[in-house]
Amino acid sequence: KGDEGPQGIEGPKGNDGIDGKDGIDGTNGIDGIDGTDGIDGKDGKDGVDGKDGNANVKMHRFNGPYTFSSSATKFVYINMTKKEFDQTIFLCYISYKNLWVSMPGPGFPSASPYRVLITHLNNLDRSRIGIQRLAPYIPVDKYDEIKVITIEATPGNRIQLNDINLTDYEEVVKHFGF
Q1: Which of 65, 98, 88 is nearest to 150 (CA)?
Q2: Contact criterion met (CB below 8 Å) for 89 and 151
Q3: CA distances (Å), 154 to each of 13, 29, 58, in order?
Q4: Do 158 and 55 form a contact (C-beta atoms < 8 A)?
Q5: Which pTM value belongs to this model?
Q6: pLDDT at 164
Q7: Which helix (H) or strand (E) holds 84?
Q8: Please, which residues bridge with residue 130 across strands?
């Protein structure tokens, strides 16, 4: 055998082989820090006012005179079912020479403390509202009239009358249009 000859010229490149199988995904990295919140947008236009509701507000007038001596209670009655009673708000006022006083509270002119007792008489289908003077103060208080304003309430809801002072009779009457 003779000596090895010089290396020959490289041949043409062959075809690529078939791709191998993909490997398993690596674990995700840690989330980046959240960016700051953007600026709030402009408020939208106010909607159209809703239709006035019907709170079924009624004024009940009871002409006097009513004389309160020591620890006296005067009763007035309003016909209503137990269901109506359970869904009614009662506002009570008494008048002394055209000055209306909210009850419960101090009377006039004596400043005697008063309370209001409201019960339902099931057998008669009516409510009984008692205004009671709590202490034996002198002088005797004399009132011209008692007014009870009843407001029908929807079960599970609150009546919101933030814009009126319920202890101010004139404001209440104006608000409800009496």
Answers
A1: 88
A2: yes
A3: 90, 56, 15
A4: no
A5: 0.63
A6: 74
A7: helix 82-86
A8: 75, 117
Which pair of structure tokens corresponds to residue 159?
Answer: 């009546």
pLDDT tier for residue 129 given thresholds of 50, 70 and 90: very high
Q: How do beta strands 105-106 and 88-96 pair? A: unpaired
Q: Are 72 and 132 in contact (CB under 8 A)?
A: yes
Neighbours of 24 (CB within 10 A): 4
CA–CA distance, 92 with 147 (Å, rounded to integer): 6
Report the distance separating Cα 118 and Cα 86, nearest Å: 11
Residue 107 near residue 141 (C-beta atoms within 8 A): yes
pLDDT band (50, 70, 90) for residue 157: low
Q: Which two tokens stand for residue 80?
A: 């209503």
Instruction: Note the Cα 171 to chain centre separation in Å.
Output: 21
What number of H helices and E strands is found in the chain? 2, 8
Q: What average pLDDT does this structure show over 38-56?
A: 75
pLDDT of residue 147: 94
Q: How many CB atoms lie within 10 A of CB 176?
A: 16
Asked if pLDDT for residue 118 goes beyond 80, the answer is yes
